[in-house]
Give the backbone structure.
Amino acid sequence: MELEKIMAELERRNPGEVEYLQAVHEVLESLEDTLNENPHIVESGVIERMIDPDRVLTFKVPWMDDNGKVHVNRGYRVQYNNAIGPYKGGIRFHPSVNLSILKFLGFEQIFKNALTTLPLGGGKGGSDFDPKGKSDAEIMRFCQSFMLELWKILGPDQDIPAGDIGVGAREVGYMFGMYKKLSGVHVGTFTGKGRNWGGSLIRPEATGFGATYFAQEMLKVKGETFEGKVVAISGFGNVAWGAAQKVTELGGKVVTLSGPDGYVYDPDGLDAEKIEYMLELRASNQDIVKPYSYEFPNAKFVEGKHPWEVKVDIAMPCATQNELNKEDAENLVKNGCMCISEGANMPCTPEAIDVIMESKMLYAPGKAANAGGVAVSGLEMTQNSMKLSWTREEVDERLQQIMKDIHNACVEHGKEEDGYINYPKGANIAGFLKVANAMLDQGVI
Ligand code: NDP
Ligand code: 2IT
């Protein structure tokens, strides 16, 4: 079969790029029927052209710490595909960052961005820089050095970065500042900007809100709502924070958060004060969630474990890739979990996905469920172009409509004969067809 040959060739050309190969394999597998029905897509080489990034920029990022010691990190930008719009995707600062991880993220971004219904191509960037424990001045110097190389390939109609793990409003501010100085223009080349210099309302909350709205749509199919549901969330960063807010507002009870050190179980559930405390915890610049259990003594800290062993109705992985494995999935199924909505990118391992799909629970992949973040980035770009700023209500309404439209696209392309909605398949097919058709229209380039 043609797809097997393509995959084998990809493995040969990209040895050891585990996450990248995992992401491509997951998409290609689900496209089999679609490609059999559309042989012209395969014959035109669209698959080979789509799975290889358009270009990758790799560069050195030297910076000086507060003690005058020089450090060198590696910076990257993967410009993946711009068939339906300019390259668009976040920047990740984390010591684990490498080319395989950024290629997997960039590849996923193509389909996610296509699903948003907005004209956005796919890209991703980042560095193996570790922001943990760094002073504000060190973060600023790093961001400035990073931009000295990156700015050359960015532009409001060319490539528009945003945040991701380790990159929030502060880092976007420092990067945008340097970009503006070097390019001499104040345009919407970044999203996730500060409110008073071009940022959109709701962008900080958008990914978590969107993942919750998506879960709400899935629950509706079963005649269910968030009211009274017990929810496990992983991570305690930007996405986890947005999801915790919206789930709580809709009547759900969030009982876990997690970090690389383990998870906290809070049987009382999060409330406004605890959600506010999440911001403090993030700002403390450590990589641990444990202090939550000192602050709120009813909460218990479970060291070195994943939150998926807790009995919950709904699970929302919002930390990082491959954080939910086969055993975790088996625990969730055993405990009667009915729905998983991925706030993070590719948080479930392939073995976990097999267990989840087998159980026939509601399961939304990140490229559909977490698309709210980049969708509001797209809305930020629109506001920048119009030199206008929409109200909170207007942005939120558009976000909700986009999440509903993505849900409908997944149902349209993912509904199986027995009525089960295969959301990963639906998301892959819907996103793929949009980009593939644009590529066919534009010729071999
Ligand atoms: P943040 O840096 O704000 O938070 C990341 C969170 O995950 C932190 O709590 C982090 O802890 C935790 N984490 C990192 N590694 C691990 C690990 N190995 N085990 C457990 N927890 C871990 O990033 P975001 O919230 O922005 O991103 C979270 C996920 O959502 C990522 O997969 C990202 O790609 C995805 N995403 C983000 C979007 C956005 O708009 N920001 C949009 C769509 C998806 P610590 O930092 O202490 O290590
Ligand atoms: O993974 C993602 O979608 C993001 N990190 C957000 C990308 C963006 O451009 O807003």
In short: The domain at 206-364 is CATH 3.40.50.720 (Rossmann fold). The mean pLDDT is 97. The first helix runs from residue 2 to 13.
